[in-house]
Amino acid sequence: MADAMIRLEAVTKRFPGAAEPAVDHLSLEVPEGELAVLVGPSGCGKTTTLKMINRIVEPTEGHIMVGGRDVMDTEAHVLRRDIGYVIQQIGLFPHKTVGANIATVPRLLGWDKDRIRQRTDELIELMSLDANMLSRYPSELSGGQRQRVGVARALAADPPVLLMDEPYGAVDPLVRGRLQEQLLALQADLHKTIVFVTHDIDEAIKLGDRIAILNVGGVLEQYDTPEAILREPANDFVASFLGDERGLKRLSLIPVTQVALERGPMVSADATGDEAKRVAQDTGDDWVGILDGERLRGWLWVADLDPAKSVGEHDTHDFRIWIENSASLRTALDAIVNTRGRVAVVYDDAVYRGLLRIDQVAAELFT
Ligand SMILES: Nc1ncnc2c1ncn2[C@@H]1O[C@H](COP(=O)(O)OP(=O)(O)O)[C@@H](O)[C@H]1O
Ligand SMILES: [Mg+2]
């Protein structure tokens, strides 16, 4: 990868007196603008790896390049400016206001007051927090709000690189889900190069462009896209770490739009009963769907078609299985299963896009 923003070259860390290395010959590249997740059991060296990237911990062997420079040859103020860090347990300064917390790095870098003020205002808005929060103290905030302040602080000097160490470990599952969504939305705008640490494989699958699965002793077992890892785990450790429902987890990563949707047995409301029958014969179905322009009005059994009427003059059944264009195959499968159906209708802004049949979902699993 020529344009890797972060490159670890055979990095090893041995802590004095430890029998085993915390990180063992770890080589890894994170391309610019991607979010890589380090995931693995407790003690496998995730935090140590992050801390070596911003030089809080120094490697025993190997090299770490950030933006083409060896971090060991980079001055502290440059590392602070270029690498934002969200630490485990958030780590806000309790005796400082939210505003002062966010301004930590800009102050260290010697920005003037106006520029700091402008930046903290921007960040509060970016994180969807209320401006009056700037003068409050961390203890007055909820866990989710504190977490957002932690990210705002890390983003203060607009660093190209962001390191996040189990940032959502302390918040409840609902808030956690929202924070994950917010991070994905933020990343779609900001395109930072992010290394995100978690021990939660589902969080890794949801967030990561790539996932590095680490084992105890700081050994890298697999580094690839979530889809590729779920499709083909490198070994038993990875397979067991991925847990149950591997196939379903993989479906959750595949958008319905990746499958070629069928038009299905669709006829316009002014078609005749005979025309409708022919359409259903062609697609091999015993029902037809009725379209009003781009909208689906409903469906009919072929057996109920009256040749003397236009299709639109019949009483129709409603479609109960429909999903948005942005849904995953897992959502589609769930919709099909829950409505005892075989097909899901795909909409985009209420406009009919096509049909997804249960066989297509199954076929996608075996490609
Ligand atoms: N400062 C330190 N001194 C000695 N051992 C350490 C130090 N920091 C971490 N370790 C050890 O290194 C290993 C990896 O720790 P860590 O990187 O914190 O794991 P993780 O974040 O994956 O849970 C553990 O065995 C831990 O006890
Ligand atoms: Mg850790």
Topology:
Elements: E1 4-13, E2 23-31, E3 35-39, H1 46-53, E4 61-66, E5 69-70, H2 76-82, E6 83-86, H3 98-102, H4 104-108, H5 113-126, H6 143-155, E7 161-165, H7 173-190, E8 193-198, H8 201-207, E9 210-215, E10 219-224, H9 226-231, H10 236-242, H11 246-251, E11 266-268, H12 273-283, E12 287-292, E13 295-301, E14 322-324, H13 329-338, E15 343-348, E16 351-357, H14 358-365
Parallel strand pairs: 3-8, 3-9, 6-7, 7-8, 11-12, 14-15
Antiparallel strand pairs: 1-2, 1-4, 4-5, 9-10, 12-13, 15-16
Helix pairs in contact: 5-6
The structure holds adenosine-5'-diphosphate and magnesium ion.
In short:
The chain contains 14 helices and 16 strands.
Question: Could you characterize the architecture of this molecule?
Answer:
By secondary structure, the chain is of the alpha/beta class. It folds into 2 domains: 4-253, Rossmann fold; 257-365, CBS-domain. The chain is 34% helix and 25% strand. The protein has a 6-stranded mixed β-sheet with strand order 6-7-8-3-9-10, sandwiched between helices. The longest helix has 18 residues, at 173-190. The protein is elongated, with a radius of gyration of 26 Å.
